[in-house]
Amino acid sequence: MKCPSFLTSFKTGNLPAQASLKFLLLTFSRMEVLQLFFRMRLYKDSYSVLWSGLFLVSLLWTGCSNTPEKIRLINQKRKVMLAAHRGASEVAPENTLAAIQKALDSPADFIEIDIHQTLDSQLVVMHDATLDRTTNGEGAISDLPLSAIKKLDAGSWFKPEFKKEKVPTLEEVLQLVKGRKKLLIELKKGDDFYPGMPHRTIALLQKYHARSWCVLQSFHDEILQEIWQNEYNVPTHKLIVGKLPMLPVYFDVSLRFGYFDKYYRASAINAHHYFATRGFVKLVHNAGFKTFVWTADDPSEINKLVDRGVDGIITNAVSSLIVQ
């Protein structure tokens, strides 16, 4: 499909194009725009006109800094939180009790997990909405009761030694962690919003006196709104992703080009590390939020993110990192 000219859209008053360009230039430095240009070269055929325009504009943009980044040891000067992505998923099958236990033994400050809701309204820990990738079962989590899901093997896909691992419930994870580290819990949506999932999550946090060591995050505004409207008094993070008009990169469609007003009750705005430029981090901090970024595993990349000012890094490689 042929992409319309970005510059033509901009010159003729196309507001989405103008707003997207404004957001890009406010958020990314000149050097960062050039890096995006080269990183997104796979789009060069359908978006050649668009990126040519952005390339020229970036060369003319003089109000941003492109100071070379410094590499330093993790946490050398300030505390940056490390979150074990789906548990210690580099060394154990993701979102299993084995991965949670290994994360408890790691330098991580947080353990990040994902939850879905079963047919009988039980909360289970899994990233995907379906069982296919990380178990020997098939189909949507929402179509099966917990008793059926508990019969599945959730570890052999990773290594044979984990063949006894089962899909854990959120309750089992809370019982294992017991406040020894903080939990960063992502509430998933499945094919549709899981009715009552935020309320059931909070009920479990209350049962195990876990609200002080748990944080809830979601991409979905309706989930966060339910948490906020019911004044559940638990910290929340907003995950952002989506597609900006006229751009072959993704950002949150619910954001208004860098204004985070509607999320004032969240304590952090979290994004993919691809977007964690100095400009973006500054934008989020100036709006009064912290930012956790995902998923960075390479030590040099993690040190770059620390240098850019992020507050937390979600990583698969937490077991192999040496924090100084």
From TrEMBL:
SUPFAM superfamilies: PLC-like phosphodiesterases. Residues 80-324 form the GP-PDE domain. InterPro entries: GP_PDE_dom, PLC-like_Pdiesterase_TIM-brl. GO terms for molecular function: phosphoric diester hydrolase activity. One of its GO terms (biological process) is lipid metabolic process. It holds the Pfam family GDPD. It comes from the Bacteria. This is Glycerophosphodiester phosphodiesterase. The lineage of its organism: Bacteria, Pseudomonadati, Bacteroidota, Cytophagia, Cytophagales.
